[in-house]
Amino acid sequence: MNAVSTTFACVGACAMYVLTMGVHAQVSLDDIEASIGGRVGELERVEQMLSHPEPNRRIAAMELLLKSGDPEFARKAREFGLFSDDHQLRQAAVRAIFDAGGAFRLETDAPSDDSTKVVSVVQSFGGAVDSEGKGSIPFILSGEFDSKEVCWLRAAARTKQCALRPTGDSIHLADWNYTTGEFKLDDEGSLRGFLLYRGSGQPVGARIPLLD
User: For the chain, how far is it from start to end, CA to CA, in angstroms?
Assistant: First the structure.
């Protein structure tokens, strides 16, 4: 093939490539627009379910959306329940979030000189303490509620091990190696309360974020 033929062949191939890319880009944009429309419709339906005038339907929708496996559905359900003006729905949201299982973390304030040994507690559970003395303990719930022990179980434990136990409007730590704690839902989407190690010293402020 001579140089002229090679040049024409290249021009033709390049032009075809550009045209092909243009078609694919157009189809891709059409697909994106269709997906956006479908997704917007889904999210609007989620909002309608959560805003249903019948309280029991709202609670049922929230519980099912939290277990749907769709991160955006779950986020909307969490926000709706945790920030609701309905006390019953707020408490149901806390329970539904733990029923769905997943990863959580227990955050602690920095201890004072006479407070409980929070650093030992954090380190014993594989957590970390920052330069200010604040701690963070990751934990995972299996999503299983033990009706006999009345508690949510830790995930991947060799034997059934309680992590959190509901008592009225409060959530208590359960089986945390001599560490006790009580938490209640605040206005920021977190369970806020305290930790106390072996019942001695002053309690340390702590919280369990439920939105992230």
Answer: 64
- Residues linked to residue 197 through DSSP beta bridges, in sequence order: 179
User: SS3 for 157?
Assistant: coil
46 and 81 in contact (C-beta within 8 Å)? no
Task: Give Cα separations from 113 to 142, 177, 182, 202, 205 (angstroms).
Answer: 36, 22, 21, 9, 14
With vertex at residue 174, the alpha carbon angle to CA 173 and CA 176, rounded to the nearest 5 degrees, is 85
pLDDT for 101-149, tens place per residue?
999 999 999 988 778 788 888 988 899 999 998 999 999 999 999 999 9
Over the stretch 38-89, which tens digit does the pLDDT of each residue have? 778 888 888 898 888 898 998 899 889 988 888 898 899 999 999 999 888 8
Q: Which residues pair with 135 in a beta bridge?
A: 108, 129
State the Cα–Cα distance between residues 72 and 181, nearest whole angstrom.
31
Compute the distance between CA of residue 84 and CA of residue 95 in angstroms, rounded to an integer.
Answer: 14
Tokens (6 digits) for 12: 């033709």
Q: Is 42 helix (H, G, I), strand (E, B) or coil?
A: helix
Q: Please give the C-alpha separations between residue 205 and each of 112, 122, 188, in angstroms, as whole numbers.
A: 11, 13, 15
Give the position of tokens 């190690």: 197
Q: CA-CA-CA-CA torsion for 79, 83, 84, 85, nearest 10 degrees?
A: -170
